[in-house]
Inverse folding.
């Protein structure tokens, strides 16, 4: 339980997807112009992460690893299989959400297809693949489906925090006098850099 | 032969190097551009890998463009890219193991690198194989250029080295009070340096400035 809590907090603040690993940067910069859409995309990313990571975890441990059901080490196939699972689940989720919750679909709908190529989903799967082999007492170790879900939730919330924060700053920045060549993209990069510096204070955080 | 290098094809190749740069103008492929640039060597390897993958993925998709059903094109593109990335990753593990350890998950993340999907969707689906190859090559090199510039400054100012060779760590320099800036090796500075690269580029090309 303690391990899970510490994994959760670390994946939000210390191993933040945006500020420590730059994952999901493309949609992060493109969709952070106002808080409402940023929130929508953040929720959608968290949602997809929580669904795909346990599936990829089971795929890695039960099928691809040497002691899985096939009895062979097939981990070189993991790139293709992970991306296929992610693209498939995103497609499936889109259909399920459309069928059962049209209002949620109306708010998330446009973002869901984008998420298949959001690097934070693939990145989280690949980091998880690396962390499976860590010793169980390591705070970063992912030892079962439960901790895969917790890691996914933490990473998703970290990503959501980052994009909502940037969107809020950019809304305010519209009123400030930025030098012409820096306007738009340039100042956004520098803002994200300063936010990342602030998040560096969390490194070494222990619970 | 003259048709192969016509004015249009030259534009296809040279535009991504400056006025249509994938990183600083199209804002594609930022994730890996920032993460692998703490040192120059992994940045060069990453730039090369992406160039090779974009060029060949563009050619393959361009050859298949008339047979891919429109509804499942994203999955087809992802599978082609994933196969190429797997090959590059295995080659790196075999011939450049140290670098592939430093690049860690970012080799795998080339699959979801937006440059690939962006170029496949925007260019290779509509154009012939040779133009697509040039477009992929141009975009890959434009991406590699930014990586190399960022990594150069980060390694020089952060560790005082270039490609692992000592440049600034001498007593005569240390005596003047110069110190390496460790912050340069941390993630935030990658963002700020890319911001500065965009600043310089837009200051030189006035028409690219945003209102």
């Amino acid at each position: 339980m303690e391990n899970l809590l510490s994994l959760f907090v670390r994946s939000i603040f210390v191993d933040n997807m945006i500020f420590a690993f730059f994952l999901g940067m493309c949609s992060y910069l493109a969709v952070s112009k106002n808080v409402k859409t940023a929130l929508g995309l953040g929720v959608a990313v968290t949602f997809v992460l929580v669904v795909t990571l346990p599936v990829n975890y089971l795929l890695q441990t039960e099928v691809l690893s040497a002691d899985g059901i096939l009895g062979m080490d097939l981990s070189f196939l993991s790139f293709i299989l992970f991306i296929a699972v992610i693209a498939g689940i995103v497609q499936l989720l889109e259909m399920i959400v459309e069928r059962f919750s049209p209002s949620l679909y109306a708010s998330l709908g446009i973002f869901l297809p984008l998420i298949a190529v959001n690097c934070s989903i693939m990145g989280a799967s690949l980091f998880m693949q690396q962390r499976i082999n860590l010793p169980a007492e390591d705070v970063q170790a992912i030892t079962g489906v439960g901790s895969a879900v917790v890691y996914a939730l933490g990473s998703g919330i970290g990503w959501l925090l980052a994009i909502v924060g940037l969107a809020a700053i950019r809304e305010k920045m519209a009123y400030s006098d930025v030098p012409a060549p820096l306007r738009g993209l340039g100042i956004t990069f520098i803002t994200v850099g300063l936010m990342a510096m602030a998040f560096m204070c969390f490194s070494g955080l222990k619970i | 032969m003259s048709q192969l290098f016509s004015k249009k094809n030259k534009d296809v190749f040279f535009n991504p190097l400056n006025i249509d740069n994938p990183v600083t103008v199209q804002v594609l492929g930022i994730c890996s551009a920032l993460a692998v640039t703490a040192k120059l060597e992994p940045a060069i390897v990453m730039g090369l890998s992406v160039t090779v993958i974009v060029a060949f993925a563009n050619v393959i998709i361009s050859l298949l463009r008339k047979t891919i059903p429109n509804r499942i094109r994203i999955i087809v593109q992802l599978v082609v890219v994933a196969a190429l990335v797997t090959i590059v990753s295995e080659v790196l593990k075999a011939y450049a193991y140290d670098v592939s350890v430093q690049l860690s998950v970012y080799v795998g993340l080339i699959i979801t690198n937006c440059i690939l999907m962006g170029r496949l969707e925007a260019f290779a689906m509509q154009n012939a194989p040779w133009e697509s190859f040039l477009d992929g090559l141009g975009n890959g090199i434009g991406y590699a250029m930014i990586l190399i510039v960022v990594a150069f400054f980060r390694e020089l100012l952060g560790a005082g080295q270039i490609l692992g060779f000592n440049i600034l760590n001498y007593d005569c320099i240390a005596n003047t009070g110069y110190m390496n800036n460790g912050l340069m090796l941390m993630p935030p500075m990658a963002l700020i340096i890319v911001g500065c690269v965009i600043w310089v580029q837009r200051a030189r090309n006035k028409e690219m400035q945003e209102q």
User: Anything to note?
Assistant: Chain A touches chain B through 47 residues (CB under 8 Å). The radius of gyration of chain A is 18 Å.
